[in-house]
Specification:
This protein is α/β, with parallel strands linked by helices and 223 residues long. It has two domains: 127 residues, P-loop containing nucleotide triphosphate hydrolases (Rossmann fold), CATH 3.40.50.300; 91 residues, P-loop containing nucleotide triphosphate hydrolases (Rossmann fold). Helix content is 48%, strand content 16%. The chain has nine helices and eight strands. Strand 3 and strand 4 form a beta hairpin. The protein is globular, with a radius of gyration of 17 Å. The mean pLDDT is 94. The structure holds 2'-deoxycytidine-5'-monophosphate (DC).
Length: 223
């Protein structure tokens, strides 16, 4: 039987969202990228002039503000729509000042609790591919299929570098690699829900695989 609740975890830029989106499309499931919720809280905190290091203030914001994540309503390259209080903030969540502060915000216990509760409610409805860092370990420990998508820091930095070049942006490989390594360090050493593969996750190492090959392997696991 096709698994109904599918969890995909892994480090930054390992290709989780690309895989999750394709898998959800192939199965007719909802694609849910949980990273956007941490980004949304970070954006909102900065927008309100809060200091991201003020754990109490940021936590209370996360507890009070519902974050809506819905299937993409426009084909402008987005994987889903993200909105708070009726405002579409999908692209705002990708801004560099959000990127620079999201690791701090996502390490707060209260923020994680508030967002994990929202994620769990959506995940338990089933027919979902949920992507993040702690989906198989904390949010949906009873998921029917858990995939941990891994890749070396060098490979992930190389992919980010080429993505940026393709978009015509300036890119510095050494700088990108340093950021990837730093994000890994913060995500995997935090006290609450650190990035790690669940004991029953199937690990796919994508260093030697392209996106199509990763997708085929994951789809085979679903069938
Ligand atoms: O996947 P992403 O780059 O959009 O994630 C943004 C940040 O949120 C990143 O620092 C890790 C964190 N995150 C998390 O802690 N738990 C999740 N389930 C998803 C993302």
């Amino acid at each position: 039987m096709t698994p109904s609740i599918i969890a995909i975890d892994g480090p930054a830029a390992s290709g989780k969202s690309t895989l999750g989106l394709r898998l959800a499309g192939a199965l007719g499931y909802l694609f849910f990228d949980t990273g956007v919720m941490y980004r949304a809280v970070t954006w909102l905190a900065l927008q309100r002039g809060l200091d991201p290091r003020d754990e109490d203030a940021v936590t209370s914001l996360a507890e009070k503000t519902p974050i809506e994540v819905a299937p993409a309503s426009t084909s402008d390259g987005r994987a889903c729509d993200v909105s708070v209080e009726g405002q579409d903030i999908t692209w705002e969540t990708r801004l560099p000042h959000v990127e620079a502060n999201v690791s701090v915000v996502s390490a707060y216990r209260g923020v994680r609790r508030a967002l994990s509760d929202q994620q769990r409610r959506i995940g338990l409805r089933g027919k979902v591919v949920m992507v993040g860092r702690d989906i198989g370990t904390v949010v949906l420990p009873d998921a029917d299929l858990k995939i941990y998508l891994d890749a070396s820091a060098e490979q992930r930095a190389t992919r980010r570098y080429h993505e940026l070049l393709l978009r015509g942006a300036n890119a510095d490989y050494a700088e990108i690699l340093a950021k990837v390594v730093e994000r890994d360090r913060i995500d995997s050493t935090r006290d609450v829900a650190p990035l790690k593969a669940a004991d029953d996750a199937i690990v796919i190492d994508s260093d030697a695989l392209n996106a199509d090959e990763v997708f085929k392997q994951a789809l085979a696991l679903c069938q």
